[in-house]
Amino acid sequence: MKKKVLFLLLQTLYLAGILTSCNNGETYADQKKKEYKAIESFMKRDITVRDADGNVVCEVGKITIIDEEQFVNQGFTTDLTKNEYVLFVNSGIYMQIMRKGTGEKLEEGKTARIICRFIEFNILGDSIQLRNDVNYWHPSPDIMKISNDYGSFNAKFDTEINGGGAMYNAYGSTSVPSGWLVPFSYICIGRQESKEEGIAKVRLIIPHSEGQVSASSNVYPCFYEITFQKMRD
Fold first, then answer.
1. pLDDT beyond 90 at 38
2. Longest Cα pair distance anywhere in the chain, in angstroms?
3. Which of 121, 155, 219, 232 has the greatest number of beta carbons closer than 10 A?
């Protein structure tokens, strides 16, 4: 319990630091321009994401952007050898499918609980902001309850099973970032049954308008690496 309180305190202090560092004279338009430039710079740099101790968490690299037409023509895949991300123009979200996953896509009219493990990197702050792929959160992963309402995905973080994971405890909301739902039109959500199989894994660049509540209110974009695995019935 003490560890959890300490985590929440540190997270609160971190978010407070972001708020106080903002220029109070900035307009919303100014903040959006800063966000756009941060995303643009992030994609052009050879990024290595490190934790607070300097350990490598993931290699992002320089990103190659493809449009939705090319994404369709490639069979709804992104070429990992070229480090491709597809840009969805309407939302401003960039997505790379690292693994499509096992099993099947979530069928229309169906609901499922999905275990999500992730890294959240604040692009504007140039640092890891939150992650649940560490031992501390293994007993309490983030679980989303998602439904496919005939092509439209809706989801909430489930707090009934384990009291909520890192996202709920950090941001105090059961709302799943809308950007997290984009991959579900293209990935499968089964469980790993053999060593050769791999659960769905994606990378996302999400602008504030499609992000979690703090990103939305403070206008900053985030990079995510996320795995999705269906819970046992």
1. yes
2. 55
3. 121
Question: What are 17's two structure tokens?
Answer: 């630091």
Which ranges of 22-83 would DSSP assign to H, the alpha helix?
28-44, 68-73
All structural domains of the chain with their residue ranges = 2-230
pLDDT of 233 reads 73
Residue 206 has pLDDT above 50, yes or no: yes
CATH domain 2-230 topology: Chitinase A; domain 3 (3.10.50)
pTM for this entry: 0.88
pLDDT of residue 2: 38
From residue 229, give the alpha-carbon distance in Å to each of 21, 34, 100, 104, 123: 37, 35, 11, 11, 26
**What band does 214 get if pLDDT is binned at 50, 70 and 90?**
very high
The string of DSSP codes covering 125-191 is: TTEEEEE--SGGGTTS-EEEEEEEETTEEEEEE--TTTS--HHHHHH---BPPGGGGGGGGT-----
Q: Which helix (H) or strand (E) holds 124?
A: none
The 3-state DSSP class for residue 66 equals strand
Residue 205 reports pLDDT greater than 50: yes
Q: Residue 133 to residues 93, 118, 173: CA-CA distances in angstroms?
A: 23, 6, 20
